[in-house]
Predict the 3D structure of the following.
Amino acid sequence: MKLDEILSKAGRYKARKRVGRGGKRGKTSGRGHKGAGQRSGNKARYGYEGGQNPALSRIPKRGFNNAQFRTTYQVVNVAKLNVFDDGSKVDLQKLAEKGLIRPDAEPVKILGDGTLRKKLIVSANAFSAAAEKKIIDAGGSIEKI
């Protein structure tokens, strides 16, 4: 017999632990003695260490971080472009209609993974060198937005 196979109410639900009612979780009810953590309504913010200098403040911060300046792209590999008809113009709107990118999100970069078997005019924000070569070798052309 497994717990998920019990059909009757007996033994189906485990009773919640009632703290502060004697027994294992009586008296301080696992909250310790005095201080904000013992009081009701206390919610310390993330990273708060009770007035001690938090770990994030203690660690040294040096150097440059590019995270806030980095350009993130939605990527589409050239192999995925085979869903379009031969000789068609592929732009951001058509990529979104086919479900290859999210509309009105980050800029789009075409990458060179796979093979392209169709002649296409591809329009995107950026292309990898391999993708440019594969599109041109297939007889197509590229347009950078």
The first strand starts at residue 74 and ends at 77.
